[in-house]
Amino acid sequence: MPEKVNLNAYFERIGFAGSIAPTLATLGMLHALHPAIIPFENLNPLMGEPVRLDQPSLERKFLAEKRGGYCFEHNLLFKRMLEDLDYTTRPLLARVIWNNPDHLERPPSHMLLLVEVNGQNYIADVGFGGLTLTAPLRLRAGVEQETPHETFRLSGGDPDWTLEARIGEDWRALYSFNLDPVSEDAIALLNQAIAADPASPFTHELRVALSPGGRRLKLHNADFTVQRAEADAEKREITRMETLRSVLTEEFGLTLPNDERLEPALAQFLPPVPPPAEPPAEPAPEPAPEPEQPLDSGP
Q1: SS3 label, residue 55
Q2: Residue 129 and residue 208: Cα distance in Å, rounded?
Q3: Active centre residues (catalytic)
Q4: 259-271 pLDDT per residue, tens
Q5: pLDDT tens digits, residue range 164-209?
Q6: CB hemisphere CA count around 22 (13 angstroms)
Q7: How far apart are the C-alpha atoms of 85 and 79, rounded to whole Å?
Q8: Edge-to-edge strand order for the sheet containing 223-228?
Q9: Helix, strand, or coil (residue 242)
Q10: d(CA 90, CA 238)
Q11: Residue 4, CB half-sphere, CA atoms under 13 Å: how many?
Q12: Is the pTM of this model over 0.85?
């Protein structure tokens, strides 16, 4: 039985106020708003906190606590919301190629969605960090498809598809996937490994991203990047805890968890705080002058 979803709270969080008919236009609006408002982030794995995928936990974290999450959280929440709007969806697993040349030797580590609209198949993915899709893509090979951010294309399809993004003048592969069915139980097992395995980058790297209109905001450890359309990226290194917390709350819109594990988890990405300077040593007191001898007053 599908888990009950709180559509009103979801619409309020992402600022959606339009038709809820299960059309391509509705899907496009939801797909643009979700990654523009709800950040990709991995604070839970960094703190050693479990990543829970049941609907009440996702709604509490994403909608009530104003947090974000990574691919399984984002796309399962998106899937359940779409199904409540009468879309037909299917979860898919992918092998990440981006910055991962040995992807074929590794198990899948990413989740996306197949969505059917009026008999046509589309892929939707609101959880791929700094290059997440901001529009659904028709499942069709060799066609360049524009989104509010980059232009994408799909290749292959017999049976493996590859998603590519145009970065400058080059096409870069993001991940490969096929249409094999995958159960939520299998997703839960994979999520548990990625959230807790010491070999998983999510347990020892800080990764935060947001995709508002015309910009990509990215934070990797202490390196903060703002990428605007048709402009050079603005980059800066964060060196202080106050600045890091401010970037997370003000730039990414996160409400940080009130957890004593958070600050130590973030501090590992910052330069060590130098010890306070010792006060200068007090000058040694000058020796007291010799008392003057009285004049000889004898005869």
Answers
A1: helix
A2: 7
A3: 71, 110, 125
A4: 999 999 999 999 9
A5: 999 988 999 999 999 999 998 999 999 999 999 999 999 999 999 9
A6: 16
A7: 10
A8: 40-41, 207-210, 215-220, 223-228, 234-237
A9: helix
A10: 40
A11: 3
A12: yes
